[in-house]
Design brief:
- By secondary structure, the protein is mainly alpha-helical.
- It has helices at 11-35, 40-52, 55-80, 88-103, 112-141, 145-165, 200-217, 219-229, 231-236, 241-268, 279-289, 294-318, 324-344, and strands at residues 2-5, 345-348.
- Strands 1-2 form a two-stranded antiparallel ribbon.
- The radius of gyration is 21 Å and the shape is globular.
Length: 349
């Protein structure tokens, strides 16, 4: 037997790949649930009920999905152009701390219709700068951005920790390490009263649609795809490779920074070092489950958020670890990689 690359990828296989990956991951996770001594079907029923069966669960799922959509888009945009952005977590945190710094100081007293978009813009710019550093090292010195963007995550988290313990520390937090609050005028309006769901969800969906049209209907989208398919051929065809990659980095880093800004202004109101439960890293899984498609990112983010929210409910009800959600999401990434492989290659005898 040998592997043969397909001349083109059948649309049916492309559409079925994430479905097969998720079903396979759920089947493997079911074995782990059974080993833990819980009924598998009841566990999955509780996950679905916990994520969508109540008003609280449904709104919490959508709230958790919002930053995942943006970090998933950040990874999808970068990966399509072969910019290996593993630093969305750091971009998320720098976007968050930038908003906390300006909303309560520089922009203090501004009306909400100016304060909110200006704060979100600052968060996006902070994310851009964070990714431009490893990309600059790659373009100038040939340094692998996988390593540099990953290591910058730890540098940024330490920087954020220093800021919330120092110049941005909230004096009214009784010693608890958190930043000064952004203020009520900077908070995003709620979509549903007495819940944490905010209009950041709508912003994330609109951004996903805009990214789709940007990638599929513009010259920049064509250039970024060409850069990802073959940098040498793209350069030969006249694509300004370095300029295109810089634009990709600005868009990708900006999306991750925007995710941090929205999380602060939509949910918390201040920054702590546990603001993100790994949104930047989970965004990579979301992007891969979506096969790097901007609209698919919305569905993949909802699935990932539902697993995290529903697994908490399932764990409490059945007395098994809620970390099964992390296992399922991780398995989904692995099975998705295998599925993508077989959409590109076929087995010949």
């Amino acid at each position: 037997m040998r592997l043969e690359r397909r001349a083109h990828r059948p649309l049916v296989l492309v559409l079925l790949a994430p479905v097969i990956a998720i079903v396979t991951a759920l089947a493997i996770s079911g074995v782990l649930i059974a080993i833990a001594g819980a009924p598998v079907l009841e566990a999955y029923r509780l996950i679905i009920t916990g994520a969508f069966g109540t008003r609280l669960g449904f709104t919490e799922t959508l709230t958790r999905a919002t930053p995942l959509m943006l970090t998933g888009l950040a990874a999808a945009v970068a990966f399509r152009a072969r910019v290996w952005n593993i630093g969305a977590e750091g971009q998320f945190y720098l976007g968050a701390i930038a908003v906390a710094a300006v909303a309560a100081t520089v922009f203090s007293g501004w009306p909400p219709y100016l304060l909110i978009p200006s704060s979100l813009m600052v968060g996006a710019i902070a994310g851009m700068v964070t990714l431009l550093v490893p990309l600059g090292l790659r373009l100038r010195f040939g340094v692998d951005e996988v390593v540099t963007s990953l290591l910058i995550n730890f540098v940024v988290v330490l920087f954020v920790s220093m800021m919330i313990e120092g110049p941005l520390k909230d004096p009214l937090a009784f010693g608890w390490p958190q930043s000064i609050p952004v203020g009520a005028d900077a908070m995003l309006p709620k979509l549903i009263d007495r819940t944490r769901l905010h209009i950041g969800l709508l912003i994330a969906i609109v951004v996903a649609v805009l990214v789709y049209f940007l990638q599929s209907r513009t010259v920049f989208g064509m250039q970024s795809r060409a850069a990802g398919l073959s940098p040498t051929a793209a350069t030969f065809a006249g694509v300004p490779l370095a300029k295109t990659l810089i634009k990709v980095a600005c868009l990708s880093g900006g999306l991750a920074g925007l995710a941090g800004a929205i999380e602060v202004t939509g949910v918390k109101g201040y920054v702590t070092t546990d603001l993100s439960p790994g949104y930047g890293y989970s965004g990579i899984i979301v992007a891969m489950l979506a096969n790097l498609h901007p609209i698919g990112v919305i569905a993949a983010a909802l699935f990932t958020a539902a697993m995290f929210v529903g697994a908490d409910s399932m764990g409490r009800a059945l007395g098994i670890p809620s970390y099964i959600a992390d296992v399922t999401v991780s398995l989904s990434l692995l099975t998705m990689l295998v599925s993508i492989f077989f959409t590109q290659y076929r087995i010949r005898r």
